[in-house]
Amino acid sequence: MKKKNRVLSTILMMFLVLFFYAPIIYTIIFSFNDSRSLTHFAGFSMQWYEKMFNDRNMMESVFYTIITAVLATIISTVIGTITAIGLSKSRKILKTIVSQVNDLPIMNPEIVTAIGLLMLFSATHITKGFYTMLLAHIMFCTPYVILSIIPKLRTLDENLAEAAMDLGATPWQSLTKVIVPQIKPGIISGALIAFTMSFDDFVISYFVTGNGVSNISILVYTMSKRVNPSINALSTLIILILSVFLLIGNVIPSLAKKKKG
Questions:
Q1: Residue numbers of the domain that contains 100
Q2: For residue 198, which of 69, 90, 125, 155 is within the disulfide window of CB 3.0 to 4.6 Å?
Q3: Is residue 168 part of a domain?
Q4: Where do the H-state alpha helices sit in 37-179?
Q5: Number of domain units in the chain
Q6: How does pLDDT run across 153-208, given as a tens digit for each residue?
Q7: pTM recorded for the entire structure
Q8: What is the pLDDT of residue 145?
Q9: Element (H, E) at 209
Q10: Taking Cα atoms as reference points, which of 220, 167, 242, 202 lies closest to residue 57?
């Protein structure tokens, strides 16, 4: 009976893995297809990657996506880290209020946030483009960073910073050499979440951008209305970039632990 249950569990697990990863594998395979067909593999070819790199609109979208994600990640990580550390030293009522406010962008549907930002930029006569998209990404990435760091701060001794200053450290040294290293895993995970959220955002970006500025998600949406195998090549590139960042996020902490050991 146990053996039968184990076999069924294995089959179910294989089915789930296939269900989740089959679309990704399909996309990668057909990005090397020699024909325009999205159902019949005619042979191996790199032509769609060549066309993708020669397509100015695609390359601009890749550039805007990466630069927006990197800047939004850096800025939101700095703001989120400072805010989380400040909250850990604040009064309980202030912690509760800020935590509730911080949860709103996470719980709020993206379409509502997008329309709200669109109305804000229109009311203030701000021209929509790269900077409005960057501001929007920083806005919705920061709460995730704060949410990732706060649990790590709760595990720290409240008197750790004061003890460091009693031993001669300045407030800045206490922050950078004592507190930040202790919460580094939370900072890294928050930064990775922020990068991923910014990189693949579509709804908010679609509403707040303009003047020929688009990220990969918007470009894929506009290209999906006609058959274009270059989408598979672009999607494979996205998968590769995100996989590299996830690999770095998992490998670096492991190497740091081995080095300490």
A1: 55-251
A2: 69
A3: yes
A4: 47-54, 56-88, 92-107, 110-123, 130-154, 160-166, 171-174
A5: 1
A6: 888 777 777 777 777 777 787 777 888 888 888 888 889 889 888 988 889 999 99
A7: 0.80
A8: 92
A9: none
A10: 220
